[in-house]
Amino acid sequence: MVPNLDKGLFWDWRYDEVDWQKTYRSVIERVLERGTKQEWEEIIRFYGMPKIVTALKDEIKFLPDYIIEEVSSYFNIRKEEMACFIRKQSRKGQWI
């Protein structure tokens, strides 16, 4: 069984060879960052809300700021609970 996602989201992957369970974190991250709300619903259907919330809180280390805001609102998670936000806060500073 595979999720019903646009193959274009995974242009740099061998789509037909993706192990959807093993690569769930990368799939969730990719869909949240580049997918539509309909595709967000598809990963919820495919992986389940608990797995996505756990990935957001504990595993996904980077999402762009605008996606952090959207994800926080959509999944009803405080951004301060999200691993990517915590990591971003701990890495503040100017790069030269």
From TrEMBL:
* Domain spans labelled DUF6922: 5-56
Please name the Pfam families in this protein's record: DUF6922 (PF21956)
This protein is called: DUF6922 domain-containing protein
**Native organism:** Niastella vici
